[in-house]
Write a structure and sequence with these properties.
Blueprint (H helix, E strand, L loop, with lengths): L1 H15 L1 E5 L5 E5 L1 H78 L15
Antiparallel strand pairs: 1-2
Helix pairs in contact: 1-2
């Protein structure tokens, strides 16, 4: 946007450096003050350079803030991953302990089971 404004200003300066006159013989003579055009273009170039330097300065100032924000985000993600890993590990430990207790109960139930088989060989007649 600034570049277009500066270019437009340079064009106005260039047109201001021109003059035209009618010679009275049906022809028009246009003269250009080359120094004024060159000065206008030099001014426009200097303004563009200044604008570029301002953009560079703003980027230089913003870079540490962006880096800091990225570092903070990375640390937060690392912390969340650590907490998630701990929670998963705790859940796995609890699940394993519960499974071991269930296995021990099943093993005890099998050990304490008595099987008695009774057969009746006599047939009753009616």
């Amino acid at each position: 946007m600034n570049g277009k404004l500066i270019l437009g200003a340079a064009m106005v300066l260039a047109l201001g450096a021109c003059s035209s006159r009618d010679e009275g013989n049906g022809s028009t003579v246009i003269s250009v003050d080359k120094g004024a055009v060159k000065n206008g273009l030099d001014d426009a170039g200097a303004a563009l350079k200044d604008a570029g330097n301002e953009v560079k300065d703003a980027a230089d100032k913003a870079a540490p803030a962006v880096k800091s924000a990225a570092d903070k985000a990375g640390n937060a993600i690392d912390h969340a991953a650590d907490k998630t890993g701990e929670a998963v590990s705790n859940a796995a430990d609890k699940t394993g302990a519960t499974a071991r207790r269930a296995g021990e109960k099943a093993d005890n139930a099998v050990d304490n089971t008595k099987v008695t088989v009774t057969t009746n060989t006599s047939e009753q007649k009616r």
